[in-house]
């Protein structure tokens, strides 16, 4: 996935952070009941227009927590 952000510096940071967060939470494949699934996980994010000094660590931690909750919810429903 390629994301390009433009605008003033504060806007670019906010938009870039939101873009990578959304990509991280939607780029995973959740466990499914179906045997065959055509879903594929997101392999990489190419971000242009802003570079965060922390690598968006807070957004990544929030996305990982969100994904864990979603995975546990799906697993709970299948049992």
List keywords for this structure.
79 residues, mainly alpha, 2 helices, 51% helix
SSE pattern: EHEH
Structural class: mainly alpha
Radius of gyration: 15 Å
Neighbour order of strands in the largest sheet = 1-2
**How far is the N terminus from the C terminus?**
34 Å
Strand count, sense and barrel status of the largest sheet are: 2 strands, parallel
Strand content: 5-15%
Low-pLDDT runs of 5+ residues are: none
What is the helix tally?
Answer: 2
User: How would you describe the shape?
Assistant: elongated
Classify the helix fraction into a percent range. Answer: 40-55%
Total strands: the figure is 2
Number of domains: 1
- Give average pLDDT, whole number: 88
How would you describe this protein?
This protein is mainly alpha-helical and 79 residues long. It has one domain. 51% of the residues lie in helices and 8% in strands. It contains 2 helices and 2 strands, in the order E-H-E-H.
Task: Sum this structure up briefly.
With 79 residues, the chain is mainly alpha-helical. It has two helices and two strands. Strand 1, helix 1 and strand 2 (46-48) form a beta-alpha-beta unit.
How are the SSEs placed, and which strands pair?
Elements (H helix, E strand, L loop, with lengths): L1 E3 L4 H18 L19 E3 L8 H22 L1
Parallel strand pairs: 1-2
Helix pairs in contact: 1-2
């Amino acid at each position: 996935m390629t994301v390009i952000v433009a605008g003033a510096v504060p806007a670019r940071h906010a938009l870039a952070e939101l873009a990578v967060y959304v990509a991280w939470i939607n780029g995973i494949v959740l466990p499914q009941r179906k045997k065959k699934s055509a879903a594929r996980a997101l392999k990489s994010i190419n971000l242009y227009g802003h570079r965060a000094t922390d690598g968006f660590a807070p957004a990544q931690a929030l996305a990982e927590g969100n994904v864990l909750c979603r995975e546990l919810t799906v697993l709970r429903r299948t049992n």
